[in-house]
Amino acid sequence: MKTALAWTTAGLVGVLAVAGSVVSRAQRGPASSSSLAMANKGLTAVDGIRVGHHTLTGRPTGCTVVVVDGDGAVGGYAQRGAAPGTRDTDLLNPQNTVEQVNAVFLTGGSAYGLSVGEGVTRYLEEKKVGFKVAGTIVPIVPGAVLMDLGFGGSSDIRPDADCGYRAAAAATDGPVVEGNIGAGAGATVGKLFGGRARAMKAGIGTYAITLPDGLVVAALVAVNAVGDIIDPTTGAVVAGIRTPDGRSLADARKLLRSPQPQAPQSSPGANTTIAVVATNARLTKVQATRMAMMADDGLARSINPAHTPSDGDTVFALATGRWQGQANVTTIGALAAEALSEAIVRAATQAVGSGGLPSARDMNTVPSRYR
Predict the structure, then answer these.
(1) Is residue 130 part of a domain?
(2) Total domains in the fold of the chain
(3) Domain, as residue range, for 212
(4) How far is it, in rounded angstroms, from Cα 323 to Cα 338?
(5) What is the pLDDT of residues 95-112, one digit of tens each?
(6) pLDDT by residue (tens digit) across 260-288?
């Protein structure tokens, strides 16, 4: 059985502002690839949501599990990448019966990583959590994979059911650890021209927005994109394809506009950004699906290009219904897009170099508000 490490740390709840606190080596465990900082509590700012990571030690890969307390949350999803790897997304279709989602998993390992869902299901079954049918329970656990096979080691090392079980068991409502951990351990960006040779390291990012009336909207994302990561407030490239000498950022937008652009070299299915957005508002499945679709625009704000033939971009939405206010789907969807956009940039800025690839911190391209 593969061994692995899981980390938790302390941080501050974010309310539209960024206030970072560096995590000590003791807090982030013995591996130098764990998270550097926490800007806010992240996805767990939504009451009833817990998050757990499990990171394999054989090479940088792992999974991240979002567990919903109680009977679950109303779920939806948006899937606009052309090379997805998913489990049980049909259940989230508003035309279909099941309303409540008990957990969502994000994982590395490409299609092999789908077995993570089996471990999460086993964990929830032991807790007697799931959809009640035929005198028993069936946990509802949709999820999505990204392609990190071979990064930093053998492709035979990949997340499995045991990884999913451990991540679910480690889930807490504390601040979510960011960076090279869980599903983001083997994540990279900037592969549109040159593949991994000119890419950079990314990982897990999270961000939460809390309004004065108590509405919370938050996002968690594992960023493994073909494209560059863009600061949505300035339009500047934060991480992505590097120049041939590896010393600076090339900017995929400029390369795509060049008179004779190079042929993209990323293989279909070799990338993918996967995310969960959540709110404490009460939504229907139709509304949760709209939330996911609007949140997906946040992905396009911070990744360029996005939704390519080589990406399997997928966004899940969860609504716990614990806030008693009046839900406005337009507001919730707009905030979900903002939260996801910020979480994507954090996935790049909180990562550290790994597998021979530099991070935004190594390249000194981290905007001041993310430091």
Answers:
(1) yes
(2) 1
(3) 13-366
(4) 20
(5) 998 889 999 999 999 999
(6) 666 566 665 578 999 999 999 999 999 99
